[in-house]
Write a structure and sequence with these properties.
Order of helices and strands: EHEEEEEEHH
Largest sheet: 7 strands, antiparallel
Structural class: alpha+beta
Low-confidence stretches: none
Strand content: 35-45%
Strand order of the largest sheet: 1-7-6-5-4-3-2
Number of strands: 7
Mean pLDDT: 90
Radius of gyration: 15 Å
Helix content: 10-25%
Distance between the termini: 22 Å
């Protein structure tokens, strides 16, 4: 398994940043390689991605969601991955978004890309693109303020 931790500071209030992040179907606007995300239910999403010419589809379950604090997920099939995005209020108009991602590279291309730091750079760039997306808009495209409690072991 490989780990990525990246963050970006956004010049937008935490509520707006969090609300925008819950709009998973907007991810193709700022995440390179993400072709489509469909929200199947409050806790399930379906992803279509293309990375280095390899197209993949997978489902991801949202395992925890606390408004203005965090969104955590894990894949439910295919390549294994899990992650969490946390939101930190810096002041009334600034928010830090931190991404922690754990994944298992599949095949030679993904393993090589991981060793060369390509996944870290992609994550950093995707967060930068998210920052530009939400700062240009100044407001979210929608919101979901529901809570999904962490599963008990």
């Amino acid at each position: 398994m490989s780990d990525v931790v990246e963050y970006v500071d956004v010049s937008v209030p935490i509520r707006t940043v969090y609300d925008q992040w819950t709009q998973f179907e907007e991810f193709p606007h700022f995440m390179q390689g993400v072709q489509e995300v469909r929200q199947l239910s409050d806790t399930m999403t379906h992803w279509t991605v293309e990375i280095a010419g390899v197209r993949r589809e997978f489902d991801a379950e949202i395992t925890e969601q606390l408004p203005d604090e965090r969104v955590a997920w894990r894949s439910t099939g295919g390549s294994r991955q899990a992650g969490v995005v946390t939101f930190h209020r810096l002041d009334d108009r600034h928010t830090r978004v931190t991404l922690q991602l754990e994944f298992e590279p599949q095949g030679v291309v993904e393993q090589t890309g991981d060793k060369l730091g390509m996944v870290d750079r992609r994550a950093k760039n995707d967060l930068k693109q998210f920052k530009q997306f939400i700062e240009r808009r100044g407001q979210e495209t929608g919101a979901w303020r529901g809570t999904i409690d962490r599963p008990t072991p």
